[in-house]
Amino acid sequence: MRLLVLSILLPVLATSRIIHGDIKSNEIKEDECILPDALRQEIRSYETVANTIINSLVNGKYKGGTYKELAKFVDTFGARVSGTENLEDAIDYALDLMKEYELENVHGEEAQVPHWVRNHEIGELISPRKASLPVLGLGSSVSTPDEGIEAEVIVVNTFDELRSENVSKEVKGKIVVYNEEYVSYGETVQYRSQGASEASKLGAVASLIGSVTPFSMSTLHTGWQNYEDGVTPIPTACITKEDARLLQRYQDRGEKIVVKLDLSYTRYNDSTSRNSVGEIEGSTDPKKVVLVSGHLDSWDVGVGAMDDGGGAFISWYALAVLKGLGLKAKRTLRAVLWTAEEPGLVGWEEYNRTHFEELSNFTFVMESDEGTFTPLGIEYAAGAEGGCIIQEIVNLLAPINATQAVASKGGVGSDISAWTSHLIPGASLLNANEKYFWFHHTQADRMEVLDPDDLDKATALWAVVSYIIADLTEDFPRTRDNAHSNMVNVIPT
After folding, report:
1. Catalytic residue among 180, 198, 279, 341
2. Which of 122, 274, 292, 433 lies in disulfide reach of 315, CB 3.0 to 4.6 Å?
3. What mean pLDDT comes out for the span 179-205?
4. C-beta of residue 244 within 8 angstroms of C-beta of residue 257
5. pLDDT band at 183, cuts 50/70/90?
6. In the predicted model, what is the mean pLDDT of residues 89-98?
7. Residue 252 burial (10 A CB sphere; 0-12, 13-18, 19+)
8. Can you tell me the mean pLDDT for 63-77?
9. Which CATH fold would you assign to the domain 37-114+270-471?
10. Quick check: is 341 catalytic?
11. Which molecular function GO terms apply here (predicted)?
12. What are the φ and ψ backbone dihedral angles of 240, each rounded to 5 degrees?
């Protein structure tokens, strides 16, 4: 099942990463929206409630709460890698936190998850000069032989160049280095996810990629990669953008490049993890669900404060604030903290399988996994009418200047991307995340990336939007595109 789902979802996930600086502007103009007066007035009637939520987080009792709880969490557990005991301890802690804040129906839901561990990694430049070559293995990479691999290097910028007649015949027995240009995450991440297999098809013994980032201070960016069926797996790791360019310059000058790699990894059997769930049960229609989410697992570098501690914590803490304020919507508000997102949306996959028959009751789904920097509004996949409803709701966020509603060209979120591409209307946090990929999957993903005031505002936005959608008289509309298109993306096999 996992291979089918991942083959469908990975392209969706890659292209769904919306960075604020890349948006050309799909923001709704007020004169483009025609909503029934009764619905428009109903949404505007929530102004007092929205202000109460915002004030409680920006100036009141809950100010600084998201940051405080997140800092304690990441300081206690650090990195939370799929399959590890530390991740399970962190999940226990998160479940206890939700109980402490009196969320309802708090529980874990099991999922089998992969467990890949890096043991040691050494890279050396042997020629044209001797120097250390820092490397960081990519998720699921195989190891080098015990004696390592010492081989000549060939540098390419694109897959087309790799496959070209002049280059492809020179690859056998060499280490392929990708010195790819960063265009966007969605376009550039293909070199991380597919680079090893593409090099192996031509006989390469290993591959290295320049880290997928628009800005580098000699930072290494890891991430999951996938071996293509029927292709010999070869060791693969990232190097810094600076070193990728250095190797390019050597090659351009006609100098022979030799690198030695000693990479050791272990792939254990899958183990049991859990998605973490907490709710505020609906007052009149509890079977209908508005879901908010982020993922609790992280990479083994940094502490996963930004990716995705911030998204996970604004999700459950938004419900904690609503509970503390005595706000109970008509429909159930459910926080899901996904497990094993990093190795390929594995927690979502199991949740989708076990809840598939209930998805018709999922009114709206939300996920924050693109940073929790200064919130600007909502990015949505909800059709034209849904977009107009969201614009009316985010207009109530004027006190924190988060009134943008931007339509996604596909799905939104990472774990929820298949749902929002084809089945369920949904949203992600639109935030000033231009620097997100500076820190993504690096040692620099720490609490210092985040700002307490930004987290307060992001939590307020999350709480206001989810609460209003869950409490409106009518269910959030499912457009034809949401409801019927290409159901294979979410049907369990």
Report:
1. 341
2. 292
3. 97
4. no
5. very high
6. 98
7. exposed
8. 98
9. Aminopeptidase (3.40.630)
10. yes
11. carboxypeptidase activity; metal ion binding; metallodipeptidase activity
12. -70, 155
Among 331, 349, 332, CA closest to 340: 349
Task: Render pLDDT for 374-390 as a digit per residue (tens, 0 to 9).
Answer: 999 999 999 999 999 99
For residue range 107-158, list pLDDT tens digits in order: 999 999 999 999 999 999 999 999 999 999 999 999 999 999 999 999 999 9
pTM (predicted TM-score): 0.93
Return the domain boundaries, the chain: 37-114+270-471, 120-267
d(CA 43, CA 392): 7
User: What spatial distance separates the first Cα and last Cα of the chain, rounded to whole Å?
Assistant: 6
CATH of the structural domain 120-267, one choice from 3.40.50.12780, 3.30.260.10, 2.130.10.120, 3.50.30.30: 3.50.30.30
One-letter amino acid of 149: I
Residue 13 pLDDT more than 60? Answer: no
| Three-state helix/strand/coil letters over the chain | CHHHHHHHHHHHHHHHCCCHHHCCCCECCHHHCCCCHHHHHHHHCCHHHHHHHHHHHHCCCCCCHHHHHHHHHHHHHCCCCCCCHHHHHHHHHHHHHHHHCCCEEEEEEEEEEEEEEEEEEEEEEEECCCEECCCEECECCCCCCCCCEEEEEEEECCHHHHHCHHHHCCCCCCEEEECCCCCCHHHHCHHHHHHHHHHHCCCCCEEEEECCCCCCCCCCCCCECCCCCCCCCCCEEEECHHHHHHHHHHHHCCCCCEEEEEEEEEEEEEEEEEEEEEEECCCCEEEEEEEEEEECCCCCCCCCHHHHHHHHHHHHHHHHHHHHCCCCCCEEEEEEEECCCCCCCHHHHHHHHHHHHHHHHEEEEEECCCCCCCEEEEEEECHHHHHHHHHHHHHHHHHHCCCEEEECCCCCCCCCHHHHHHCCCEEEEEECCCCHHHHCCCCCCCHHHCCHHHHHHHHHHHHHHHHHHHHCCCCCCCCHHHHHCCHHHCCCC
Supply φ then ψ for residue 10, to 5 degrees: -60, -45
Residue 445: Cβ within 10 Å count: 27
pLDDT band at 490 (very low <50, low <70, confident <90, very high): low
Q: What type of residue sits at position 365?
A: V
CA 245 to chain centre: 28
CA distance 413 to 411: 7
